[in-house]
Design brief:
There is one protein chain. The chain has three domains: 5-55, Uridine Diphospho-n-acetylenolpyruvylglucosamine Reductase, domain 2; 57-182, 2-Layer Sandwich (Uridine Diphospho-n-acetylenolpyruvylglucosamine Reductase, domain 3); 201-296, UDP-N-acetylenolpyruvoylglucosamine reductase, C-terminal domain (Uridine Diphospho-n-acetylenolpyruvylglucosamine Reductase, domain 1, Alpha-Beta Complex), CATH 3.90.78. The protein is α+β, with helices and mostly antiparallel strands and 302 residues long. The strands form five sheets. A five-stranded antiparallel sheet has the order 5-6-10-8-9. The protein has a three-stranded parallel sheet with strand order 1-4-2, with helices on one face. It has a three-stranded mixed sheet with strand order 3-15-16. The chain has helices at 14-27, 76-85, 101-107, 137-140, 168-185, 201-206, 210-216, 245-263, 283-301; strands at 5-9, 31-34, 40-42, 47-53, 61-64, 67-71, 88-89, 120-126, 132-136, 155-162, 164-165, 223-224, 227-229, 237-239, 272-274, 280-282. The longest helix is centred in the last third of the chain and has 19 residues, at 245-263. Helix content is 34%, strand content 22%. The structure holds flavin-adenine dinucleotide (FAD). Flavin-adenine dinucleotide is lined by residues 32-40, 54, 72, 97-100, 102-104, 106-107, 109-111, 155-156, 186, 188, 192, 194, 272, 280.
Length: 302
């Protein structure tokens, strides 16, 4: 679905991250930072710049009593399993979430109404000029699926987490149950960006979560090009074959407008769109921009 980037870099330590960011900033080269791309929709036109991947080459876990320092590229399910086996509880809700700990912290991701932010003590961070700093829990300003890190434009390279002691067998059983429950509810066998829309508390209390509301609007199975509202869980948009990024954005816009007209709630996207100039924005922002520019051209033609 996503096109090709001009260049791809995969640093192995924070010094390489720092050197790359400094160079790209000095030369004014467009760039973006990715983990496992599980929350991202790349434009089919590709990316005129550099993609920096903080992934498995920058990973590792150090456990000391009830605190854990984890490098940003570490896989989240692996982290949850490793700390659980050490008798540390608190990350069970993350065991089924694809992606890296860096991406999870930036998104304050989680499940079961939890977010990883509540376990974060500090984040080791390389800013857009290549300077390395420690960002405290408070400075991260964690809120529902957001953090101040999203606006800072640098890279998370490591995270310190505080957990509680627990029984490894109980933790393993709970994680196995979570994984089985997610498999039965989520379309994990088809490409998608995870939950398309955020669950807004006011909307949840009035009409329910996005999946239920989208289903009640009769949108399950709706297709544009190769993009389809999942038949298994309506808050997922799957690539069912040859979808272009424009198909996904058009379908996301259609769902957003239909739900707005029915309920009065404008659902914001959790999925993030990566533009050809390497800017990353919530996908509904790009969907709305395209609808507005299509409306403007129709009006000009009249
Ligand atoms: C089937 C499926 C189920 C999912 N279920 C959940 C769920 O239950 N809960 C949930 O919260 N999410 C869920 N997601 C979304 C996604 O898995 C999470 O947002 C995940 O934490 C993203 O991690 P990533 O490494 O893939 O990040 P990416 O998708 O690569 O990037 C996400 C954002 O983080 C930034 N980023 C990534 N790494 C870094 C870094 N090291 N430093 C700075 N910025 C960085 C990127 O620039 C981007 O803005 C799901 C996705 C899928 C496909």
């Amino acid at each position: 679905m996503g096109g090709i980037a001009d260049a791809f870099v995969e640093p192995v330590d924070e010094h390489q991250v720092s050197a790359v960011l400094r160079l790209l900033e000095l030369t004014g080269t467009p760039h973006c930072i990715i983990g496992e791309t599980s929350n991202l929709l790349f434009d089919s036109e590709g990316l005129r710049g550099v993609v920096i991947r903080i992934g498995s080459r920058l990973s590792g876990i150090e456990i000391s009593n009830r605190e854990v320092i984890v490098k940003a590229g570490n896989s989240v399910p692996e982290l949850a399993r490793v700390v659980g086996a050490h008798g540390l509880t608190g990350l069970e809700h993350t065991v089924g979430i694809p992606g890296t700990i860096g991406g999870l912290v930036l998104m304050n991701g989680g499940s079961k109404r939890k977010g990883i932010g509540s376990n974060v003590v500090w984040v080791r961070y390389v800013d857009r000029n290549g300077d390395i700093a420690v960002v405290s829990h408070q400075e991260c300003e964690f809120a529902y699926r957001s953090s101040s890190l999203q606006l800072m434009g640098g890279a998370v390279v490591a995270v310190r987490l505080r957990l509680e002691s627990g029984d490894p067998d109980r933790i393993t059983t709970e994680m196995d149950e979570i994984v089985a429950s997610r498999r039965s509810r989520f379309p994990e066998d088809q490409p998608n960006c995870g939950s398309t829309f955020l669950s807004d508390p006011a909307m949840y209390a009035t009409v329910g979560p996005p999946g239920k509301v989208i289903e009640e609007a009769g949108l399950k199975g709706t297709r544009i090009g190769g993009a389809e509202v999942s038949l298994k869980h309506a808050n997922f948009i799957n690539n069912v074959g040859g979808a272009r990024s424009g198909d996904v954005l058009a379908l996301l816009g259609l769902v957003r407008q239909t739900v707005l007209a029915r309920t009065g709630f404008a659902m914001d996207a959790e999925a993030r769109y990566v533009a050809p100039d390497a800017r990353i924005t919530p996908a509904h922002v790009e969907a709305d921009r395209r609808t507005a520019s299509a409306d403007a051209s129709v009006n000009q033609g009249q």
